[in-house]
Specification:
This is 2-keto-myo-inositol isomerase. Keywords: Isomerase. It comes from Blautia parvula. The chain has 276 residues and is α/β, with parallel strands linked by helices. Helix content is 44%, strand content 18%. It has 11 helices and 10 strands. The strands form 2 sheets. The protein has an 8-stranded parallel beta barrel, surrounded by 6 helices. The chain has a two-stranded antiparallel ribbon with strand order 8-9. Strand 3, helix 4 and strand 4 form a beta-alpha-beta unit. The protein is globular and about 45 Å long. The N and C termini lie close together (7 Å).
Length: 276
Amino acid sequence: MKLGFNEATALECKGQSLLADMEMCEKYGFDYIEIRFDCVKDYLQEHTLEELADWFKNHHLKPWAYNTLIYFNQRDEAGKKEIDDEVDFILKVSKAIGMKMLITVPNFDVKDKSVSEIKEEAVERLRYLSDKVGADMKISLEFCGAPNCSINQFGTAYDVVKAVDRDNVGITVDTFHFHEMCSKLEDLKAADGKKIFAYHLNDCEDLPLGSCGDDKRLWPEEGVVDHAGIAAALKEIGFDGVCTIEEFRPEYYAMSHEENVKKAAEVTKAFVEKYF
């Protein structure tokens, strides 16, 4: 299994930038990087996509996914236009640097919609986006483990992905989100491993389920997430992709940028060696 770094992990560290992240990820042995939407836009204020492509061509580290196309579903017409414009930008970046996946998250605070209605509309939107990006680009739906997220459990997200029924549409398993809204291991074990496109690694404080924000994430195996169960289920269904560390913790942002990325590399390597 390959090792990935999501830029959120060091996002607020002093000196953080896309280029700084890439250099540190290369130094500490990551195979892939998930590029954040804000970081790449900041990078392009002073650099070009050609420079970014050249950097990846000359280093071991490669781009894994664009993170994130936010709030793809339950949008008004103006919101749908924003999504279209953002996808056009994502495709421009992805084609330039050889990135093959975008991760998308659902909308929050959707009022007076049934789960069935939310699923049906999400299927429609993901089919539209599947057509827009083309068969060479993957879309990975990341459910978010919060009570007010429109798609907040693995089972619901997987139902949507199955109904979409496109080879280029799959799902992101984030261990924090999986834990927070009590997603079921039996649902994961019943899934098609080929539909698991991304695997986000993190942990969670021992607080009431559904109450935690992203700032309550921890390094893997420092909290209460059932990593053994999730990892075993992923192995059982044949997942063998990239394990990507993704943190948002203020205490980790207080570390130096290099120490943050170094620590992230150490815990990700140790986790993969233990479970995979």
